[in-house]
Amino acid sequence: MTILCVRFQLPPMHEAALPGLLGLLEEFTPVVQAMPPDGALADLRGAERYFGRTALELASVIRVRALALHGVDCVIGAGPGPMLARMALADARPGLTRAVAEDEVREFLADRPVVALPGVGTRTARTLCEYGLDTLGRVAAAPLSTLQRLVGARAGRELHEKANGIDRGRVVPNAVSRSLATERPFTRDELDPGRHRRALLSAAGELGARLRALDKVCRSLTLTVRYADRSTTTRARTLAEPTAHSAALTEAAYGLYEALGLQRARVRAIALRAEGLDPAEQASHQLTFDPVDEKLRRLEEVADRARAKFGPRAVMPGSLAA
């Protein structure tokens, strides 16, 4: 168990505290991968040897320091690889690290639904369930050729390996500055999909405006939905082309939301993150010859000039696409 997946229990709209908490992890290992808005992966292989402590012991120290220095509690999952650490996190509770040892991996995975596996979306899970492969234990026991016929050659091989506990992922150090995020909390647990979509529209509009103000484009978009029981669901999508266009971000956000297939979900907050930021001057734009799209882009330019002159509230983000 050398990989930790840590989720800091930050209050809504307090994502700015994440860099300081990442610095706390970096006191133990330089191999830290940010997972905004409130989490991180940490590879403790070197730290275990250096400090002469196990990953579980180091996890306890990290939790105490986060509380003492930042006033933030955290939940921690530990496993032999990033995928298993992330899955262990789903069972973790404040004050208790959920650990999956090497010899426990198959047992840990066996009874879990296929949708619990990172990278398995609603559509893939539905296809597998139609053939009776509704748990990871059954997927692991299925012939590789069967899985490849159902979901494709590459995806089938990856699914077969992951269901058998083969975790080829690694922790990739990164920086929070390579992304921008915004969150839309609700005043009460919100069940109305229409309100969820309006929150997405507003969040995508804000991200687009911030990206254009920085002369940046993003290559991918991540949606995080936080529920009433404090659990979360996160989905990411690589965009067709790098963009800062609010309409394109909104379309991608809607697609991520629809893919979750939420039904009567009590949603506490919705967050969007633009990742893989690059200078706008290095990005190419595919001409669509769509007059509506071109009109929206011209309106964005006018709105951006208004914000620059009169302040960020001169035009409410998302209003142009409404």
Task: Give a nutshell description of this structure.
With about 325 residues, the chain is an alpha+beta fold.
Question: Which features does this protein show?
Answer:
22% strand, globular, 42% helix, 322 residues, alpha+beta, 10 strands
Structure characterization notes:
- It is a single chain.
- With 322 residues, the protein is an alpha+beta fold.
- The chain is 42% helix and 22% strand.
- The strands form 2 sheets. Strands 2-3-1-4-5 form a 5-stranded mixed sheet.
- Helix 1 packs across helix 3, helix 8 packs across helix 9 (153-163) and helix 10 (193-213) runs antiparallel to helix 11.
Per-chain topology:
Blueprint: E1 3-8, H1 18-26, E2 32-35, E3 39-43, H2 45-51, H3 55-70, E4 74-79, H4 82-89, E5 98-99, H5 105-110, H6 122-130, H7 136-141, H8 144-151, H9 153-163, E6 179-190, H10 193-213, E7 216-227, E8 232-243, H11 246-260, E9 267-275, E10 278-279, H12 291-310
Parallel strand pairs: 4-5
Antiparallel strand pairs: 1-3, 1-4, 2-3, 6-9, 7-8, 7-9, 7-10
Cα distance, first to last residue? Answer: 48 Å
Strand order of the largest sheet: 2-3-1-4-5
Biggest sheet statistics: 5 strands, mixed
Question: What gross morphology would you assign?
Answer: globular
| SS summary, helix count | 12
Mean pLDDT, to the nearest integer, reads 84
- Percent of residues in beta strands? 15-25%
- Number of E strands: 10
How would you classify the quaternary structure?
single chain
Radius of gyration: 21 Å
Derived from helix and strand composition plus strand pairing, the structural class reads alpha+beta
Order of helices and strands: EHEEHHEHEHHHHHEHEEHEEH
Uncertain regions spanning at least 5 consecutive residues: none
Helical percentage: 40-55%
